[in-house]
Amino acid sequence: MSYINNINLHTIKKDYLGNKIQNGKFVEYVSQTKTIAEILKWKLESNIKDDEYSLDIIKNNKFLAQQDDFIVWLGHATFLIQVNGKRIITDPCLTSPIFTKRHTEIPLKIKDILPDYILISHGHFDHLDSSTIKYFNNATALVPLKMKKIIENMNSSIKIQEAGWYQQYSIDEEFNIYFLPALHWHRRTLFDTNEVLWGSFIIETPNKVIYFAGDTGYDTHFKEIGKLFDIDIAILPIGTYAPRWFMKDNHMNPKDAYKAFFDLRAKILIPKHFGTFDISNEPMGEPEEIIRKIMKPEQLKVLTIGKEILL
Predict the structure, then answer these.
(1) Is the pTM of this model over 0.85?
(2) Which helix (H) or strand (E) holds 140?
(3) Which of 22, 61, 86, 230 could bond 108 through an S-S bridge, CB–CB 3.0 to 4.6 Å?
(4) Are strands 86-90 and 117-119 parallel, antiparallel or unpaired?
(5) Answer CATH for 2-310 from 3.40.50.300, 3.10.20.90, 3.20.20.480, 3.60.15.10
(6) Under DSSP, is residue 109 helix (H, G, I), strand (E, B) or coil?
C-alpha cells in the first residue's frame, strides 16, 4: 500500500497523506465490485419503462453572451457554469455513449460552448465522452489522478491538471476549484478497473460555493466536505438507483441525495443524473417525482435543460 497525490498542488485537509493505491489500483472509497453472475441477474430484472416521461428542453444559446454568473443544465451530469466570465463544463457527455440511447436533445451546438475549464469527476462513458471532448480545443481539463493519458488521446490540445482528493487545482483565477472524495469506481476497458481515480468538485467563488458531485453512493464523505466548506448550491445525482441491491454502492436514490444535502449543509439542491439515459431499472420520471415530494420548494431547484439560472 502506498499514497499518492499531485505533489505540485496544495492539500487542504491537514495530515492527509494522499489517495491509497495498491498494485496500481485505487482502493479507498471503492464501490463493491459485482460478479458476472450479479450483472447478469440485474440485466434480467425488469426495467420499468416510462414512455410518457420526457424532460423539458429549451433550445437556447443566448446564455453564451451572458455577462453575469450562471448555471445551465445540458442534460445528465453535464452543466455549463459561468464564473467571473470563465466557462466551466462538468462531466462532458453531450452525445450518446456506446450502446446507450440519449432521450434528451442538447439545447445548443457542442462546438459553440468553448469552455475554459472541463471538470471530469470520473472516467465512465456517460461522464467522459470523446465525441464531446473533441470540440473543446485548448481548454484546461481538471481531472482525477491517472486520467491524463485518456484525455490526451481524445484531444491533444487540451491542457491537463490532475489532482488527488482534498487538493486545490492551481488556476490563476478569482475563484478556486478543489477535488474531493466520492464513493464510486473507474473502468473504461476490461483491463483498467480502478487504475484512475474518481471524485467530486467544489467551485469556490467570491459570492457562491458550488458543490458538484460525480457519481457516488451515500457515505460519510458528505459530512467531511460539509465541514470544510460553506456550500450554497449542491448539484447531486438522484437517478440510476434500481435495483437497489445492485446500485446502492454506486448511485444515490433521491432519499440518499436528501441526506447528502443535509450532510453538506447546503442551501439549495440542484438534481442531476436523471431523465437523459435509461441505464437502470427505475422509471425515468421517478427520481424527479420523489425528490419533489420529499424536499421543500425553497430547498430544491430542478433546472430546465437550456434555461440558465443566475448566481
Answers:
(1) yes
(2) strand 140-144
(3) 61
(4) parallel
(5) 3.60.15.10
(6) coil
